[in-house]
Specification:
By secondary structure, the protein is an alpha/beta fold. The chain has a single domain (31-285), classed as Rossmann fold (3-Layer(aba) Sandwich), CATH 3.40.50. Helix content is 30%, strand content 25%. The strands form four sheets. Strands 3-2-4-5-1-10-11-16 form an eight-stranded mixed β-sheet, with helices on both faces.
């Protein structure tokens, strides 16, 4: 990102953040907000429209706040997501670029709590959680969700939604690969996520990167959880215990209903595991 773009972005934030006030007659506290959990890749028009409609931005004159902490280039992540939203007529958009140990202003926390839509960009989910875990930023996101605001995230921004978050790293094979070549015990690495949805692990870029081995490993290592793999250009819209598939491709849901786990040497085995493949428009029950 060149210097001119950085200057323009800073100028935008200074000029606009003071105007980002809660919309009059907006969503009231009581029911938690919905989650739009996107598997990465391009976002088709129907998915973007769903996100805008569900947030109520245009109806309530709210605003979008982009949190790009998963990205290695936070300013670029804000710029390109803002540009895409502008193309759909959403102009009240800003972003905060937090780094580990940054001072956090109360006005920033208020902006997070009152945003009609909070959007997490892609990148590295572990980077995101290192920056926000156990900070006022994390607590402000949770407050926004509890107060009924829409939280959306793509790729790494999808994985951070869960209580138990998969990092993508392998404990036994530290050289990074996009998927697992084995199904073996004590290999999957997890850390705490935001906990906006619990009882599940979310994985992204799922079918296009053949990440089934990683999810089988997850439900054998942690039989109590449900694994949800979301493909490119696809999302799930979570409303309480109800999930709807949105976008172009499939969502795979992995369950170990009998808690079956067998080990032999350095390999996992299991019986009566359940895998469901959902298409756009399908719905399923969250745990």
């Amino acid at each position: 990102m060149n210097a001119l773009l950085n200057i323009c972005l800073v100028f935008f934030l200074i000029c606009n953040l003071s105007q980002l006030e809660p919309a009059a007659g907006g969503i009231k506290a009581g029911k938690p907000g919905k989650l739009l959990i996107i598997g990465g890749g391009t976002k088709p028009p129907g998915l973007i429209k769903k996100m805008i409609d569900e947030s109520g931005i245009k109806k309530n004159k709210g605003y979008v706040l982009i949190l790009p902490m998963a990205s290695a280039e936070q300013d670029s992540a804000i710029y390109y997501m803002k540009k895409q939203l502008n193309e759909y007529g959403v102009n009240r958009v800003a972003g905060f670029m937090f780094h580990k140990g940054d001072p956090i202003r109360s006005s920033q926390l208020d902006s997070i709590k009152n945003a009609a839509l909070i959007y997490f960009t892609g990148g590295d989910q572990q980077r995101f959680m290192i920056i926000v875990h156990n900070t006022p930023v994390e607590r402000a996101i949770i407050v926004a969700h509890k107060n009924g605001h829409l939280i959306a995230g793509t790729s790494a921004g999808a994985s951070v939604m869960t209580g138990m978050m998969i990092t993508g790293n392998e404990k036994k094979h530290p050289k990074y690969e996009s998927t697992y070549s084995t199904i073996e015990p004590d290999n999957i690495e997890t850390i705490p996520g935001l906990g906006l949805v619990t009882g599940v692990i979310i994985d992204q870029h799922f079918i296009i990167r053949s990440r089934e081995n990683r999810m089988f490993t997850a439900i054998l290592q942690y039989p109590e959880i449900v694994g949800i793999g979301i493909d490119h250009s696809t999302a799930i819209l979570v409303d309480g215990s109800h999930a709807e598939v949105v976008g172009n491709n499939q969502v795979m849901v992995f369950r170990n209903p009998g808690g079956s786990v067998r080990r032999k040497g350095d390999r996992f085995g299991g019986s009566a595991l359940r895998v469901d493949i959902y298409l756009p428009g399908d719905t399923f029950i969250m745990p």
